[in-house]
Design goal:
- The protein is built from 5 helices and 7 strands.
- It is globular.
- Helices cover 35% and strands 19% of the residues.
- The protein is α/β, with parallel strands linked by helices and 206 residues long.
- The protein starts with 13 loop residues before the first helix and ends with a strand.
- It has a 7-stranded mixed beta sheet, with helices on both faces.
């Protein structure tokens, strides 16, 4: 795991302070994702809408920490939409001290789509993610979400499976992303011509 931390008591120059800030956010991206359901608070977030570059209003689930925010984490959904599990992940980051936003990327083709984990739901999710969404537009939408989040502090991006792929592309293509953490992103091998422009960690199982 990449560790970007400063020595205790050492202030350093502007570049070193920026590295330390990135490390602080970066450690949170990985640590918050490991919390159990028992650790997470529930039902503390709210639904918001974010205006995209073309004026489209994209829904999102948003949660804030009880104290001072350490930064903002954009949580990118799996193929199942912003369902209960993704909302729990958002709450987990808020519990760790981050503002967290999960944009409902399917809203352009089917507003508020939330799927379960049956075989039928999986088939529907795959169809919506890989055949329904237009990737170029999805990346523009994610840029709008990052821009919205950046008004509140440094922005990290985390995503799972389909969201892991989009997290990798976000690290490569989007401006304003401070750090990114991709979990078992499917399809990354097909987009390796894109090079990350910020610190990135990727998680895969054996």
């Amino acid at each position: 795991m990449l560790s970007l931390v400063s020595m205790p008591g050492h202030q350093g120059g502007a570049e070193e302070r920026q590295v330390a800030k990135i490390g602080y956010l970066y450690r949170g991206l990985s640590a918050a994702g490991t919390r159990t359901n028992h650790d997470r608070r529930r039902g503390m977030g709210d639904q918001i809408s974010i205006t995209m570059q073309d004026g489209f209003e994209l829904g999102a689930y948003h949660s804030t920490p009880s104290g001072q925010s350490k930064g903002v984490v954009v949580v990118i959904q799996e193929i199942f939409g912003v369902n209960g599990h993704i909302r729990e992940v958002v709450e987990g980051y808020a519990e760790r001290g981050y503002q967290a936003i999960a944009p409902a990327l399917f809203d352009r083709i089917e507003p508020d789509l939330q799927l379960g984990y049956t075989e039928a739901d999986m088939g529907k999710g795959i169809e919506r993610a890989f055949y329904g969404l237009e990737m170029a537009q999805t990346m523009k939408d994610l840029q709008s979400v990052v821009d919205h989040a950046a008004a509140q502090g440094a922005v990290g991006v985390v995503g799972y499976c389909f969201g892991g792929l989009l997290t990798y592309l976000s690290a490569c293509q989007l401006s304003g992303v401070t750090a990114a953490s991709s979990y078992y992103g499917g399809g990354i091998s097909g987009v390796l011509d894109n090079q990350p422009q910020c610190p990135l960690i990727m998680h895969f199982g054996e």
